[in-house]
Predict the 3D structure of the following.
Amino acid sequence: MTDHHVAEADLTAEHLPGDARLSIAELDQCVHCGLCLNHCPTYRVTQLEPESPRGRIHLVRAAAEGRIEPNARFGEHIYLCLMCRACETACPSGVQYGRIAEAAREVLGPPGGPLARTLTRLAFTQLFPYPRRLRLAATLLRFYQRSGLQCRSRGSSLPRSPTSCRRSAPAAREWRCCPAA
Ligand code: SF4
Ligand code: SF4
């Protein structure tokens, strides 16, 4: 891992494996229409833009351009994605979201520490398969967001507002992207 800040001029990636290379043109295929949002389970539960396909693509583009750091928070948004690809079938622009997410994960490396892995496993096995639990989790999350507790959660692993993605934090790993063809 490195604290390297990626400048726009750095968007070459010859050293990256082929699957980790994205083009800006590929990311620009997303026209932000939002038709994928209601097909995305993580967005439906959290109602947070960074937990949606559109939001994640936006984050990847910002990281590829060096406008944000691919830090731990960035990694959380990328790894909360279930990789179900329901967004791909809903997308009228043919965005290959799965490829974008896989490339991001390739660059980030394995997700967080033991706690993050445990929470992810619990979400997969004990939450997402059960609609009633999902609804309860969504209710609790909305309360958490509206109560002001979210603002005090700096440093925790719980989701915060989209603007928090722009805060500086230790980079997860160097992020680069190849230029548009
Ligand atoms: S991924 Fe597709 S459906 Fe979702 S906002 Fe972008 S263009 Fe629209
Ligand atoms: S692949 Fe990820 S972003 Fe797309 S619908 Fe599934 S959880 Fe949402």
